[in-house]
Design goal:
This protein has 87 residues and is of the alpha+beta class. It has helices at 46-57, 81-84, and strands spanning 2-15, 18-27, 37-41, 66-68. The longest helix has 12 residues, at 46-57. The chain starts with a strand and ends with a helix. This is Rad60/SUMO-like domain-containing protein.
């Protein structure tokens, strides 16, 4: 199963004078009943997003599913949203 992942919007939040950036990521899948939006930190590994999506979809291990960017390239689990170039 291939799952395209795309950054949808960016939002700024501040916490104790430290600036944390979050983005909202839309995960499009063949399982239409799922809520496809996830809020992730820019410096969080994309592996965490994949694990959360698989838990919500009751798929099991995240390694059994392919996560792709909009161009069809497979997403590296050891990269962050910033390193991957998401908005």
């Amino acid at each position: 199963m291939s799952i395209p992942v795309r950054a949808v919007k960016e939002e700024d939040t501040t916490e104790d004078s430290a600036k944390n950036l979050y983005i909202t990521v839309k995960v499009a899948s063949q399982m239409n009943e799922l809520d496809p939006y996830f809020r992730v930190r820019r410096n969080e590994l994309l592996k965490q997003l994949m694990i959360r999506w698989c838990a919500r979809a009751d798929v099991g291990d995240y390694k059994t599913v392919r996560f792709l960017d909009p161009e069809g390239t497979r997403i590296n689990v050891n990269k962050t949203a910033d390193e991957f170039g998401m908005l």
